[in-house]
Amino acid sequence: MxxxxxxxxxxxxxxxxxxxxGTALAVALIAACGTxxxxxxxxPAGSDRYAxxxxxVSARRQVSVHDGDKTxxxxxxxxPALPSGLADRLATVPGVARVTKDVAFHAQPLTxxxxxxxxxxxxxxxxxxxRxxxxxxxxGxxxxxxxxxxxTSASLTPFRLLSGHAPRxxxxxxxxxxxxxxxxxPGDRVRMALSQEVTSFRLAGIVATAQGPxxxxxxxxxxxxxxxxxxxxxxxATALAxxxxxxxxxxxxxxxxxxxxxxxxxxxxxxxxxQADAPTALVSYTGAVGxxxxxxxxxxxxxxxxxxxxxxxxxxxxxxxxxxxxxxxATPHQVRRLMxxxxxxxxxxxxxxxxxxxxxxxxxxxxxFVATGxxxxxxxxxxxxxxxxxAAGTGVGVARLAAYFAARRVARIAPAEAMRESAAAPAGxxxxxxxxxxxxxxxxxxxxxxxxxxxxxxxxxxxIGCALLICAAAALGPWLVRAVGAVLGxxxxxxxGRLAAANTRRFPLRAAGAAMPLALLFALNATMLLNSTLLGxxxxxxGRARVAAARETLTAxxxxxxxxxxxxxxxxxxxxxxxxxxxxxEVMVREGGRPQHYPAQGLYRTGGxxxxxxxxxxxxxxxxxxxxVSTDLAxxxxxxxxxxxxxxxxxxxxxxxxxxxxxxxxxxxxxxxxPGPLAxxxxxxxxxxxxxxxxxxxxxxxxxxxxxxxxxSADGGTADxxxxxxxxxxxxxxxxxxxxxxxxxxxxxLNTFAMAALGRxxxxxxxxxxxxxxxxxxxxxxxxxxxxxxxxxxxxxxIAAVVVGTFSSAQDGRWRIIVDPLWYTGLLAGxxxxxLAAAALPTRLVLRTAxxxxxxxxx
Amino acid sequence: MYLxxxxxxxxxxxxxxxxxxxGGGGTPALRGVSARLSAGTFSAVMGPSGSGKSTLLNxxxxxxxxxxxRVRLAGEDIGALREPALTRARRRRAGFVFxxxxxVPALSVWQNVLLPQRLAGVRPDRRWADEVLAxxxxxxxxxxxxxxxxxxxxxxxxxARALAGRPQVLFADEPTGxxxxxxxxxxxxxxxxxxxxxxxxVVMVTxxxxxxxxxxxxxxxxxxxxxxxxxDVSAAEVAAVMTELSAR
Lengths: 859, 248
Description:
Oligomer: heterodimer
CATH architecture of the domain at 42-52 and 90-247 in chain B: 3-Layer(aba) Sandwich
Mean pLDDT of chain B: 85
Number of domains of chain A: 4
Strand order of the largest sheet of chain B: 6-7-8-3-9-10
Largest sheet of chain A: 10 strands, mixed
Order of helices and strands of chain B: EEEHEEHEHHHEHEHEEH
């Protein structure tokens, strides 16, 4: 049996070509996504700033909710404060020689021109690898965060002085990378952007680590102990680094430290020490994990769809051969086994080809994603063997599964079919198709109607709905194609047109084999593209409406945000009566028995305020000690004005506050508005994303502002780095997704048309003998291709219309289908061209050989 | 080797067999056919197009299940068998030669000859397979692929394959239909030889009177019923009956 399977694959390689290409592609893509996923999960979360410490003690950064006997936890975006007196307690533990307190707070040097200088984003150029003096990388956009620390903590890495001396009050020490990019030398004055003010310091010295001029992915600034104590904010992360006595038994000391520290803190050693670093200095791969995870998911879906199609089609093309085997004594079980073994053989070869291709693609994709800023540069491709084996296994498994389903029906073929000129698959399966289609449509309807379709979740749900509808269309394909064929068939002129319409109606499975991948291509891409475009447009629209009243918007050019002082100064300007400032933060809310993250904003307000959040209930002016909540969140939580609600702030503090207002314009902003001081006290790196002024402060006032805050930008933009990064990652992922589906579809469509054309060689030859010119046969084939492609586009457009329409109406009650005419028509034209080209090519080739081959029947 | 020592024993017995195809407009292909074909003989089944001769062969060989009636193949009642028991019965008792598309294109001549035994999971009898391949004159083409053979050679391989399994009955459906005169002649001579020298039972469906003349007995079908049965007839006699049947 194995020999027969191998012989068949070798002999009929062309009928397995589509399956092979689809499987190899799937293996490559899954291997690439898997490798990147594993890399993201195992890449360093940050720099090992505590490399010289034996252990680091940090507060437990998570919120737990107890629901019955289950406990659900979510990580905090900030760091809780350490219990007071802990340092003293730990210092008395036997074997602990020294306890060093570290605190990390926002402190960013500015160049002479006022540009913020960021840390090195990728991670350390080699020592002495000096780039040409003071290159404008200092221009700092996208630079890694820069953290200020007390000088005592410099020894924890350790940082050593290259020149100068330890900082006294009013002095700073910079790492060599920052100093170079800021263009300063010991003795110079350097302005530091802090969370409250911009203050000038004298540069006392320059430090470097043993590995290089700076830490990978963060910059370091050291202050005198008293300056650091003054500048650190209550929400900033603190850690206690422990040095053990010489000769002490590390494990024993650790046990004692753990029991002295208590349950609320973590005692970290080895690679885990990184996790005690400031939350804003840690590199997050959650975005990358999401992108690569969903791409792997979509790939598996498309692969299953395409491979199932190619295998089923190939099986139908060789019914006669399978029937012959049945007459020679093969049981249906043996036919199934034969097809299964063939799938194994093709799958294994495809995996062997696809896996190295995947490894290569992983590197390529990593570079592309890093280039667009969608993925942190510290992501290194080192997934190991596991994702590769998983990808190979998935590819082979998908092929085997598809063969199982294809064989289930075909194997029941009556042996007598071997003697007929054109063998027919056993009837039946029709009810099965109808039932599957109906169930899938019902599932899609349930997803679209009953799940939340707003915002980012809605995009995901829209995708699931779309995938279900595509599967339903595949099940109902023959009927859908026949319906389109019946509607359009009458419009096609001439004998060739009539013949084409008849062929499409009579052999709808063949037509569906090419039409459904096209429907998949259009529906999947239209849904993803249009929904995210729509969401982006609506968010931008909401954002514009929110800030419409602002005469001037102040942001920090190239830095993470403005100090609070910038708002206070601007609001004091004589001409400015109304001013707002926003401080991006995050809250957690108990939802369905687990803590759930929601973006939030701390709001500072002077006068009547500037931002129009479209308050529907209550009033923002009475924010005082209360909070305002978006209508979306209030809806899911059943909150009303006047209710007292419980929230976790980023540092884990639990607060109960009354709801004073509900507002509608939350998209791209946040679902909870906190009083500014409350947010500032509990958010790591409390910086203002923007200051909105209701009146023009006038040129003189602006000049004063700029002098005090050199990195202040007043070009009215509502720059928000977080959103830009999200957009970039989404765009990059979408483009890649489009690429993936185009390639898969091309494989499926080309395969279907090519195999159909090969199988019909005899039919074409017969038509030629009947007096049809080659031109007429080509015309018939072209019209069939047009019918098939149109059917695919119609089905795809129908699915996209349902999903996009539902999504759109969930956002703002308006039913949109096309959203972006340029993209829509482009997608339509592209898909159509792909279908027509894939059909024309094999037909032309076959006709050229059929003319010579005469009336010989298939094969 | 199975030898039909008792020439009176029936290789194929049909009792009141009817067959109606689903979706065939309800017109039966066979209407109560009863027939008895003796072991060790060469029988031909003849009739005009649509007379049901192929259906008769399919039912007799266990390729199709009759709608009604009993089918006994070498003594075993196969009319009531379902898959995969039917396939197993067919493996033991029947060998096939069709008009065309007999060989699995991916396999060599030798592999094709041994395929039924491999599918049946029995150890192939290579010496016997060698002998039948020699009998059909293709010992030298063991490693050739089907598409490297002429139509007549392919058909001879099919005969060899059918004989290699030592079936109790060899069924042939229009075995010469796609061949030229001399190639057809060779195939018919091989079948005749199998009956005479090996005691093989052969049942052949054909529409060619010249082919039917090679048989010991000819069964004529018309409209799904048995019209008549003749022994040791000449091609001219067969042609006369066919003319009469076609004129009706």
